[in-house]
Amino acid sequence: MLGRGLAVLGRAIREQPRIFAVAVTSSVLFGVMVIASAYVVGAVVGEVVVPSIADGSVAVGALALAAAALFGISVLRVVAIFGRRLGAGYMQYRLQAAYRRRVTRRYLDLPLAWHQRNATGTLLSNANSDVEAAWYPIAPLPFAVGTLVMLVGAIASLFLTDWALALVGLAVFPALFALNVVYSRRMAPRQARAQRLRAEVSGIAHESFDGALVVKTMGREAQETVRFSARAGELRDALISVGRLRGVFDPLLETLPSLGTLAVLVVGAVRLRHGAIGVTELVSVAFLFTVLAFPVRAIGWVLAELPRSVAGWDRVRRVLDATGEMPYGDRRLDPDPPAPASLAFHDVHFAYEPAEAHLPGVAVLGEVSFTVPAGKTVALVGPTGAGKSTVASLAVRLVDPRAGTVTLDGVDVRDLSAESLTSTVALVAQVPFVFDDTVRANITLDRPGIGDDDVWAALRLAEADGFVAALPDGLDTLVGERGTSLSGGQRQRLTLARALAGRPRLLVLDDATSAVDPRVEAAILAGLRAPAGGQGAAASILVVAYRRATIALADEVIYLEQGRVLARGTHRELLATVPGYADLVTAYEQAEREREQTRTYEEVTPLASGLEIEVDR
Amino acid sequence: MTSGEPQRPEATESAWRTMRRGLALSPELRVGLAGTLALALVYMVGRVAVPVAVQRGIDDGLTVAGGPDLGVVGAVAVATAAVLVVTTICGYLMMRRLFTVSETALANVRTRAFRHVHDLSMLHQQSERRGSLVSRVTSDVDQITQFLQWGGVILIVNLGQLVVTTAVMLAYSWRLTLVVIVAFAPAVLVIRALQRRLGAAYGVVRQRTGALLGTIAESVVGAPVIRAYGIAGRTSRRLDDAIDAQRTAQQRAIRISIMGSSVGELAAGVALAGVVVLGVLLGVDGSLSVGQLTAFLFLVTLFIQPVQIATEVLNEAQNAIAGWRRVLDVLDVAPDVADPGEQGRELPDGPLDIRFAGVSFAYPGSPPVLHDVTLDIPAKSRVAVVGETGSGKTTFAKLLTRLMDPTEGTVLLSGVPLDRVRFSSLRSRVVMVPQDGFLFDATVGENVRFARPELTDEQLTVAFTELGLADWLDGLPSGLDTPVGERGEALSVGERQLVALARAYVADPDLLVLDEATSAVDPATEVRLQRTLDAVTRGRTTLAIAHRLSTAQAADEVIVVDRGRIVQRGPHDELVRDPDSVYGLLYASWLEQTR
Predict the structure, then answer these.
(1) Of A463, B70, B118, B286, which one's alpha carbon is 20 to 30 angstroms from that of B270?
(2) CATH homologous superfamily of domain A2-320?
(3) Which residues form the signal peptide (chain B) (predicted)?
């Protein structure tokens, strides 16, 4: 652990060599000043105070010099403290910022498949608390390094002063050092345990309060409190154990140098009697023991943080070393004038990569082939888990197939440049994602060439112009984190407008209107198929749909089951020939018939997904 | 106390008042406090033992006529060492007592606050405040305990050290003590002023850290959007800005903090120089010995450390006290829907009937949601409440389960006013299935037996069979032992609802209140949900807040709510006969949406 910890510190020093040099130089200066102050105090007592009091007269020059020396050392100490703390702080913050940048950049570069294998919470703490933990020991590091130099200097100066006093130093300083090492080694696991329990207590509170309604309506408050209190009790015991350890070591760390000073007094008295030293030396050494005790603890601070630092660094490294790129090609598609694009899947296979290398991946799609002809609308229908969203992701190249190809206007999407791909296709996902920004920025996303007129046109097409116009600041309204100030349907229409604003030539809607009123949905789709200009469709559309009304608008329906295309054709054809499709689409009618037969049970019959959103408080 | 905002007795309540309130709430903190403080005092004496020993050693042993007297020096050293052993032991005992007592008291406060949050009404538990309620029992209490572990001891010991050091200095020479105080007084003032700026600077750091976390979260959660729209450049710019903003704030804070310690350091230099000059003059006068002056130089260094540390720790102390105040404030909010407890009544046995007598309800500071509703629902009937969004229909569910109390009027179950019913009786007889069917991060079985932990696996399996879910249960990887994941996310939305319904079924209530789920699930799952729902409601009084009119069609009776009033009631077939009625219009638009 120590070796790996030092390796992490070494990396930090290599990354910020200059600022580290400033901090350590200052810290060494501080150490030298600490030793110097001891010798100056000793000299002042021995050379100025004792003779003056003995003679009963004041040597003004010597006194002024003594005062100036004491004050001068303080000034130098201030300079040293400034350099050390500022250097250490800047170094720590710079490293944190640099690594946050690298980690987040990596998130942006790694393919989506990698994101899907990692929990959101993990990725957040990798960029935040793990980076912080990795560089935490940097704050006391220069102090600790300076202290090491100071300890060596102190022992050297002791030997120069008197060998007998130096032996006292040789006994006390290493013991102090060892005590600090033992302290931090024993403290680290206790702190880690307390930290883990803190997270667990917090986890229980989060869950329990999230489920407050269930807890309350089932009257389980007492049991939940018992569950919470048990873990809070464990945390309490862990904290008491941390405190007890502190109670043992803190007083010991203070007493040890004091005992050293007493030893200096006794040994010094013997040496003084032999005439080997004077009062100056004795006071200097005694003072040195007093002022040295505190800095030595800095070494303990660094050591105490090392295990956490190594753990954090390992997690950060996992992200930085993660492999997998999704390079873009350099082919461009820009027909003039713009016309709807055609999409084709040729024998596409897809499987999610396993969480661990030795496990098999989960196959999602196999032998999927279909086309969306230019200007046409194709509906993708299938039961939950059939792979519809995966098809949508493949179509816009969020993921690449294991085998087979996806082409746009006949060109493999892997050969397209990033700009060409994103300007050709747009995906509107099932769950709308809204940035914590203005309505305008959420729609333009800073893409060039989208003016306010285009934004309003897109909003109109998505039937979102009405509510946006009613917002307090219109396009400049801030929508809040994840768009919390908007309803689910509003968020969906906003993301739809975002897609439309880029004038894509292929639009992929992944159940993107589920929270929108069916009439509005129909109007939106109709608008897309036949824009107000009067010409044909501006874009081809691939739409994942549940509602019959949506499906009815499609030129063709692809029926997907367990990752395979089971049938394709018009809605009418599929209804007549594919039993699975008919079952799915007519589930409601079937249930209704059942109810007719078992009238005695008064069976409840749903008619469609309940899409009304209750915004009651 | 009806306002939704947790009560704040005084926005700028003094730290002393908070501490008094806190002590009143946790009397265990006072236990043995005098003993702990006495131990602390002895511990602090150890800090001045060495300067005193140095003075004695020099004056009585080293600078006496005839050369150093080893016997005196040895005696002083042994005596001081003995004192140090005693003070070290006292230090250990003091900390041990302090940590045991304070951690125990705070763990109790934590648990009480947790329970109290659950006892607060729905109004206080609303989702937007949930996060802050969690921090009341987590980070706020953590802040106090962490302060006690580090800062608290440092504060006590250093303030004590300041006092003891000053006393010893005064004993040696009041004039030199004055020099030290004069040198430090301006420094303390400057440090206090800097401390305020530092507090503000740390505020900025916290705020920017929050913003940074938000931006990082956005880039992680929004990864598909960022990829699909090719806006990695924009995103990384936003990230870099947030990262740099946080770094600059941190750097600013540390600059202020260093200025504070520098001022203290300079003051120490001035004090040392002043002590030497004046001390020598006094020594020449004969009013101060070499040993006393030397001891003084030692004492001055003992003076710097507490001044610097205490001012730094004071900042932390303010945060900890603010955290304590927030916890106390939550505990001060009286639950506005209270359990009548022992004085309360039990609900009569058997099926329950419902009566709303002149019930009105308004959220604090808002117009009424329900107006003077009077309503009778016979036992064992299945009733659907329908209405537009915002019509007030979910308020029925909340009043019936006593998540809230009516502003006016009374809700009665089998003739007993709801606010007279003991919670233990109410919660076992009346069960609500909320919209989102929240599941705990446990197994399917543990979630289903939530209300009745005594049920065996066999009994649960029987219940699933009765609900027609036996094949679904068999299809799970480990049956009842299948973990459902955080918030049930390992299951689909529809499956979560199935588990929530099974949970309500085994609770075996006499009145079931359903807030119908609205999430989109595929039609096949939806049909299964409906069948399960039907099995769960059979033979019980059921009130369903219907979002789908299919539920209304199947109910014995439909209650139509419009703008807080009941405008129609009767069986579905009867209500649809009037196409221009509220229900007729609702039904027409429903048909249009679904056919």
Answers:
(1) B286
(2) ABC transporter type 1, transmembrane domain (1.20.1560.10)
(3) none
Comparing CA positions, the residue from A562, A542, A566, A515 lying closest to residue A384 is: A562
Top pLDDT among B172 and A485 is at B172
**What are the phi and psi torsion angles at B120 (to 5°)?**
-70, 155
Residue with the larger pLDDT of the pair A203 and A83:
A83
Q: Where are the domains of chain A?
A: 2-320, 343-600
Taking CA–CA distances from A96, the nearest residue in chain B reads B247
Q: Can you say whether the dihedral through the CA atoms of B118, B121, B127, B131 is positive or negative?
A: negative
Choose the mutation target among A217, A236, A498, A597 for the interface with B, i.e. most B CBs under 10 Å: A217
CA distance A14 to chain B (A): 20
Residue B236: what pLDDT?
A: 93
* C-alpha separations of B441 from A116, A268, B385, B431, B479 in Å: 21, 68, 32, 21, 16
Cβ of B222 and A435 within 8 Å? yes
Q: From B441, which residue of chain A is nearest by alpha-carbon distance?
A: A207
Between chain A and chain B, the number of residue pairs with CB atoms below 8 A apart is 500
Quick check: B250 and A206 CB within 8 A? no
Task: With CB atoms and an 8 Å threshold, state whether A212 touches B130.
Answer: yes
8 Å CB contact between A379 and B520: no
Sequence spans of domains, chain B: 14-171, 343-594
Mind listing the pLDDT tens digit for each residue in B146-176? 787 777 777 777 778 888 888 888 998 899 9
Q: Which of B118, B218, B285, B501 is best to mutate for the A interface (most A CBs within 10 A)?
A: B118
Of A74, A86, A517, the CB nearest to B265: A74
CATH of A343-600, one of 3.30.70.1730, 3.90.226.10, 3.40.50.300, 1.10.340.30: 3.40.50.300
CA distances to A133, A192, B98, B148, B325 from B320, in Å: 23, 22, 16, 9, 9
The verdict on domain B343-594 having CATH code 3.40.50.2020 is: no
| Nearest CA among B540, B483, B532 for reference residue B508 | B540
Cβ-Cβ contacts under 8 Å, A287 against chain B:
297-298
Give the H/E segment covering residue A343.
strand A343-352
ipTM, 2 dp: 0.83
